[in-house]
TrEMBL record:
The lineage of its organism: Bacteria, Bacillati, Actinomycetota, Actinomycetes, Micromonosporales. The chain holds residues 486 to 766 of 767 of the full protein. Signal peptide: none annotated. Residues 23-279 form the EAL domain. It comes from Paractinoplanes ferrugineus. This is Diguanylate cyclase (GGDEF)-like protein.
């Protein structure tokens, strides 16, 4: 912590200092993580309602730290974003997920319900050359762009700038874009006026979190669907944990959902076993 003098010294807090040191240690470990093979992807199914048949998967990054075990992306992604390491990590995620998607495409053909959603951070989107990098990865992996969905967050495209320009260019190039954590930001609705997307992922706080336990949460989720239909957007309800939630969402008109009720994030082999199970039926 810094000695600022005067009253401002009062914010000096050993707990905060410890937190900063901890995050600095993690940050330097993170720099080695890719090279040491500590990063891997899990995939969580996105299913159709009411059938629960798989419609796609979301790739979710995991870090197995040699001493600490699994570190949550909610911890290491912000650290990687601050240091800029997210650019390297994000490229690795994009390439690995596309390679996996290409493999599923080869094995199971175009009927296989294996659309792959990939999280793209604001820093990546704003980086000059991001669109060219995506095109390069598509070419090298051979994955069909119609099988991908790039998930972006509202903060990335709040203001006009390179990230917003990248989103527009990606859509012009027939790549589909999802707005993640929809409803949690400051200006989710007005954002749609200047940032065209294909899919809204309705945040889990409205579905299973605190808001859902209130009447307001339920009203919002149920009314958002009419709004997305009117705008020709697809909606995915996130964080579905109970059969009752799934039934209510389905009755409200949701056709796609994701959550622990259907599956936790799992390794690619498990997804594949589920796919072959479905295809065998
Ligand atoms: P997200 O993109 O909103 O991903 C959904 C998160 O919700 C995942 O957490 C998932 O495991 C969790 N989840 C799914 N179903 C349920 C449910 O029914 N209940 C509850 N309580 N949670 C559920 P995860 O994997 O820990 O990831 C956390 C966040 O880290 C992600 O939120 C995303 O913002 C970020 N992240 C993960 N992987 C990547 C990546 O490859 N790149 C970037 N830029 N960010 C990533
Ligand atoms: Ca996401
Ligand atoms: Ca989300
Ligand atoms: Ca989230």
């Amino acid at each position: 912590a810094k000695a600022l003098g005067g009253d401002r010294l009062h914010w000096f807090d050993p707990a905060m200092d410890e937190l900063a040191a901890e995050s600095a240690r993690l940050g330097s470990d993170l720099e080695q993580a890719l090279r040491r093979g500590e990063m891997f992807l899990l995939y969580q199914p996105i299913v159709e309602l009411p059938s629960h048949r798989p419609a796609g998967v979301e790739a979710l990054l995991r870090w197995r730290h040699p001493d600490r075990g699994l570190v949550s992306p909610d911890v290491f992604i912000p650290i990687a974003e601050r240091s800029g390491l997210i650019l390297e990590l994000g490229r690795w995620v994009l390439e690995s997920a596309c390679r996996q998607a290409a493999l599923w495409q080869q094995r199971y053909g175009t009927d296989a319900p294996a659309k792959v959603s990939i999280n793209v951070s604001a820093r990546q989107l704003a980086e000059p050359g991001f669109v060219a990098e995506v095109e390069d990865i598509l070419r090298r992996t051979g994955v069909d762009r119609s099988r991908l969905l790039l998930e972006i967050t509202e903060t990335a495209v709040l203001d006009p700038g390179p990230a917003l320009a990248a989103v527009r260019e990606l859509r012009d190039r027939k790549l589909r874009i999802a707005l993640d954590d929809f409803g949690t930001g400051q200006s989710s609705l007005s954002l749609l006026l200047h940032c065209p997307v294909d899919v809204l992922k309705v945040d889990k706080s409205f579905v299973s979190g605190t808001a859902a336990t209130s009447d307001a949460g339920a009203v919002i989720v149920e009314n958002l669907i009419g709004f997305t239909t009117g705008l020709h957007l697809e909606a995915v309800a996130e964080g579905v944990e109970t059969a009752e939630q799934a039934e209510r969402l389905s009755a409200a008109g949701y056709r796609l959902a994701q959550g622990y009720l259907f599956s936790r994030p799992v390794p690619a082999e498990i997804i594949e076993a589920q796919l072959t199970g479905v295809l065998a039926k």
